[in-house]
Specification:
The protein is an all-alpha fold. The protein is built from four helices and no strands. It has one domain (3-64). Residues 1-20 are annotated as: Disordered.
Length: 65
């Protein structure tokens, strides 16, 4: 079975059982994924969060408007 066929089967099963994935990938999900990938390299989560809020969030907020 190819990847394309597997995805098609998965889509059919989700529709069959009426299970839909969340409609959006929100910033909180991305932040948690990013933190999990950086584990061991982050010295202070408070400092990382502060840097992200200062340097990244203003740009994310602008694109959502």
């Amino acid at each position: 079975m190819s990847l394309k066929e597997a995805r098609q089967v998965t889509r059919r099963k989700r529709k069959e059982f009426d299970q839909e994935p969340p409609k959006g990938y929100v910033f909180g999900d991305a932040f948690r994924l990013w933190c999990n990938q950086k584990k061991g390299r982050i010295v202070s989560y408070e400092n990382e969060k502060r840097m992200l809020e200062r340097h990244l969030l203003p740009y994310v907020d602008e694109t959502n408007r």
